[in-house]
Design brief:
- The protein is built from ten helices and 14 strands.
- The strands form three sheets. A six-stranded mixed beta sheet has the order 3-2-1-4-7-6, with helices on both faces.
- β11 and β12 form a beta hairpin.
- By secondary structure, the protein is α/β, with parallel strands linked by helices.
- It is globular and about 65 Å long.
């Protein structure tokens, strides 16, 4: 359309977040609307138009670009992954594109690789953040990115390409332990809207516990959140941030060690994600003497989706 407006969306398993956008550097968000995650949708087409329909009725058949589990095997369309190494053009070429109710839709494929442990690995949704950052950063030598989250990603990039990555399930493990395990019994519930702070003494204690003991593996460290609570060294309020410090400390320590052993020594990490969570990872990197910078994950995702939307409009379906 003449206006150049488009709809960009992160549609994951648990939530949908759509944005009515105008292209630019940075992309300008006109309006935002939220909807059900893909795992809660029996009819993704109907769900999409419930949320985006008012924009389309007002603006016309806006082009749409979506990332996340909307392209998975439980999504709207099952989109094959793009293989690493991959750059933005490779990702754009593998987008699944179709038209529905007169609206052109492009779904980002996600990327796959054989990780440094020789195992298959995949991401779906985070690639929009990675390439959004790459669009802004431009060509450079090898860099290490970390995308904290439910399934954190550690990515190696070089000259605008993702070469490989690996996944850490730290976020999900934290929720499982707090909600369903003995370790979580006796912990005070999290205060709504109040994230764990990087300077919280209990979080720092958890980090220092694992960094001071390189042989202390995750499966051995985690029970200390229970034993210290039982013995009175942790309170119900401090056990949760302590456990977070243990898990994030183990993840960062082990990821840096694995990269070093794979011939990719790390002296700087770019953290892309929610600012509060990224700050926790940054606190661990500080203690390891490794530099870092923080990139807002939402802004990076919009930048990546905007670049892909431009490509989708340029190439006929």
């Amino acid at each position: 359309m003449a206006s150049g407006r488009f709809i960009a969306g992160d549609w994951g398993s648990s939530f949908m977040r759509l944005h009515l956008c105008e292209p630019g550097a940075p992309v300008r968000v006109i309006e935002t609307a939220n909807g059900r995650g893909i795992k809660f949708c029996d009819d993704p087409e109907a769900t999409f138009f419930e949320v985006a329909g008012p924009w389309i009725a007002r603006e016309g058949p806006l082009p749409v670009v979506l990332a996340g589990m909307v392209g998975g095997n439980i999504g709207w369309v099952d989109c094959p992954y793009a293989d690493c190494p991959a750059n933005l053009d490779d990702l754009a070429a593998r987008m699944t594109r179709f038209e529905v109710r007169g609206v052109p839709v492009a779904i980002v494929p996600g990327i796959s690789c054989t990780n440094l442990f020789g195992l298959p690995d995949v991401m779906r949704g985070e690639e929009a953040q990675v390439f959004g950052w790459l669009v802004r950063a431009g060509s450079m030598g090898r860099r290490t990115l970390c995308l904290p989250g439910t399934h954190a990603k550690w990515c190696s990039v070089a000259d605008e390409r993702v070469t490989r990555f690996f996944t850490s399930m730290t976020g999900e493990m934290f929720e499982i332990l707090v909600t369903h395990s003995l370790v979580g019994r006796g912990m005070a519930p999290a205060e709504p809207g109040v994230p764990i702070a990087a300077r919280d003494p209990a979080f720092v204690r958890g980090v220092d516990t694992v960094l001071a003991n390189p042989r202390l593996a995750f499966e051995h460290a985690v029970f200390s959140a229970r034993s210290l609570l039982v013995m009175g060294s942790l309170s119900a309020e401090t056990a949760r941030p302590y456990l977070s410090g243990l898990l994030i400390g183990c993840e960062v320590r082990d990821a840096i060690g694995a990269l070093h052993e794979a011939g990719e020594p790390v002296d700087h990490v770019t953290l892309i994600g929610a600012p509060e969570l990224s700050a926790l990872y940054g606190a661990v990197l500080d203690r390891l003497g490794i530099g870092h910078d923080l990139v807002d994950g939402h802004a990076a995702s919009l930048a990546g989706l905007s670049a892909l939307a431009t490509h989708a409009q340029r190439v006929p379906a």
